[in-house]
Amino acid sequence: MFAKVLPNRNKKKDCETSLIPEFIYPKYGPGELWEQVAKDILESGGIIRKGAKVTEVHKDNSNKIDYVSIATEDGTEKVCGDIFLSSMPLKDLVAGMNDVPKDMLDIAEGLPYRDFVTVGLLVDKLNLVNTTKIKTFNGLVPDCWIYVQDTGVKLGRIQIFNNWSPYMVNDPEKEVWIGLEYFCNEGDYFWNMSDEECKKQAIQELKKMGVLSEKSIIKDAHREKVKKAYPAYFDTYEQIDKLISYLNQFDNLYCIGRNGQHRYNNMDHSMVTSFEAVHNIVNGIQSKDNIWNVNTEKEYHESAK
Ligand SMILES: Cc1cc2nc3c(=O)[nH]c(=O)nc-3n(C[C@H](O)[C@H](O)[C@H](O)COP(=O)(O)OP(=O)(O)OC[C@H]3O[C@@H](n4cnc5c(N)ncnc54)[C@H](O)[C@@H]3O)c2cc1C
Predict the structure, then answer these.
(1) 257 lines ligand 1 (CB under 6 A)
(2) Cα–Cα distances in Å, from 180 out to 18, 117, 175, 219?
(3) Quick one: which of 144, 168, 172, 146 has its CA closest to 157?
(4) Can you name the CATH fold of 49-111+233-292?
(5) Atom of ligand 1 nearest to the CA of 260
(6) Which of ligand 1's atoms lies nearest the C-alpha of 230?
(7) For the chain, which ranges sit under pLDDT 50?
(8) Whose CA is closest to atom 43 on ligand 1?
(9) I need a labelling partner for 131 at 20 to 30 A (CA). Which of 54, 97, 98, 120 fits?
(10) What is residue 290's three-state secondary structure?
(11) pLDDT tens across 84-107, in order?
């Protein structure tokens, strides 16, 4: 749905996932997809509770989840249900459950994540030359993202939002929105930088690499922090199969998504885990193996420096 190859869909895959030349992308970005999903849910009588944090996942004596507690600005509330699909981080799910054996609590508690800071910059132009035959506005390089190999900077990847969809930029002929991606850990020096310090470092790094020139005009800047952006595969991750077996005992609990499975799932994989869960629920299939087996072929890789 989000990064799907179009014309050569049936041909032998001959390039890395992150280098595919064409894909479908919503005009105003992937959020549009979820706005439509939310609309469909409401129209079919569903209820969406926003600003509600699940703080407790309660299981009864018969291996079933019977309710969750949610914290909202109006206080805490119990929400009962027959079936629970969980996309909250596995670590938080298990921490919120009652009567969990200590060894399972330890595995969940030890699951590691990498966190993420992104700096958006609106600039007049990039100091990079388009040497391809692809026509672009204002000679902009045609890449959607550029991986940064320079070990002299902290920056890991540059997104060029004009190329994802020019509709996301006010005046794509005269300005470029770029997103600078920094991989870090919650609480480290980079995470704790002030907005201004962080934006300053981002601009300096781009100038150092020649992506911006000294004359570049920075029209706008924004910094965003994202906790648990990347589920990581070290510490107690090697024992995750034990935790999965433990969670599979709860008949009406389905772990889906990226952090919900603690797997480096992209958006498509994450959606497929929920399709598989719904398939099992509708067809009365007890095993959850098909849900946990999405994205186990280890074909899709990205590395964070
Ligand atoms: C920097 C970055 C770039 C990416 N780029 C791409 C890309 O180009 N293509 C692609 O396909 N995928 C990409 N991904 C991956 C994609 O974002 C994920 O695969 C997808 O969002 C996972 O969907 P999800 O529903 O499992 O989790 P999320 O989208 O993370 O949704 C989980 C939701 O649960 C909420 N939540 C967490 N805890 C609780 C709680 N206790 N109570 C209530 N709610 C809770 C969170 O706030 C969040 O809204 C990227 C991810 C990152 C971090």
Answers:
(1) yes
(2) 17, 8, 16, 15
(3) 146
(4) FAD/NAD(P)-binding domain (3.50.50)
(5) 26
(6) 53
(7) 1-12, 300-301, 303-305
(8) 53
(9) 120
(10) helix
(11) 999 999 999 999 999 999 999 999
